[in-house]
Every structure is written in structure tokens, then in C-alpha cells.
Amino acid sequence: MSRIGLSSRSIRRSKPQIFEDVLRVIESGEYKPTRIMYKSNLSWKPLNKILNNMINLGLIEEKDLNGHKYFFITEKGKEFLELMDNLKRMLVPASFARYVEIDSLLSSPPKINEGYRSFKTDSLEAVKLRIPTS
Fold first, then answer.
1. Helical H runs in the chain?
2. pLDDT in tens, the chain (134 residues)
3. Which residues are CB-neighbours of 74 under 8 A, at least 6 positions away?
4. N or C: which end of the chain has fewer CB within 10 A?
5. Does 3-130 carry CATH code 1.10.10.10?
6. pTM for the model
7. How far is CA 77 from CA 89, 120, 133, in A?
8. Four-residue CA torsion sign, 13, 133, 74, 92
9. Contacts of 51 (CB under 8 A, 6+ apart)
10. Residues paired with 120 in a beta bridge
11. Could you count the other beta carbons within 10 Å of the beta carbon of residue 26?
């Protein structure tokens, strides 16, 4: 999951950004909590709190299979991701929308000229392509 985001994680992610990150990890096929933790860049305690919040909101569901917990995205979770994509599409060219972090977009909006033909930022340091390690 390559994304354009902040050059460093010195700025904390918002709850919607964390929810999006966790949902994208689950959507990509990671169902085990430890794998979700690593791929979404969270530690164990915050992950468990976030997973419980997401279950209560109906964004994910937990299943116990052979004594192991697995998490799956629900239709409501898919709708959440679609809404996030639509919000980003309003702010950046559609081809970039899924790969832009909403937090970085709102804190340092890109300059878009000539009907989305040109996509520029104030600084090259403000935008970075993140490539997954697995």
C-alpha cells in the first residue's frame, strides 16, 4: 500500500486517519491482530482500543476461529473507506486520491492548477512516497 504522506511521523495521526489505515490493512488481507498492528504502525495497547472502537462502530467484526482472533471489514467499513476516498478526490486529482493521507492533505494542501493537470506542493519534503516493506 504505497501512500503519499508526511516525510516523517512527527505529526500524530488523527483518529480518522488511523481508522483508514487499519481498515486498508484489513482490506488488503491481513486479518490477524499482530499483522494488523505491524502494517498499520501501531503498538499493541492502542491497536486493541482502536479495534474495539471500530467493532462498536460496526466498521469491522471480530471472529474467533480455533481459539484465534481474526478481524474482517464490514460493509460499513467499506463505506467508510469509500467516503474517505471521495473526500480526498474532492481535494486532489482522482489518480492520487487513494494514496494521499488525509492528515497531510489537510495540514499542507497541495496546489492544483489548470483543472488537475498540475499537482504541486510547497515543499518536496512535505510529500513522500511510502512503499510497504512486505
1. 15-27, 33-39, 44-57, 75-91, 94-97, 102-107
2. 445 444 444 578 899 999 999 999 999 999 999 999 999 999 999 999 999 999 999 999 999 999 999 999 999 999 999 999 888 888 777 666 677 777 777 776 555 544 444 444 443 333 333 334 44
3. 58, 59, 60, 61
4. C
5. yes
6. 0.70
7. 18, 31, 25
8. positive
9. 22, 33, 36, 60, 62, 71
10. 111
11. 24
Can you tell me which residue has the cell 467499513?
77
25 alpha carbon, distance to own chain's centre: 8
Give the amino acid at 55: I
3-state SS track over 92-126: CCHHHHCCECHHHHHHCCCEEECCCCEEECCCHHH
Contacts of 27 (CB under 8 A, 6+ apart): 73, 77, 78, 81
| Residue 47 to residue 102: CA distance in whole angstroms | 20
Overall residue count recorded for the chain in this entry:
134
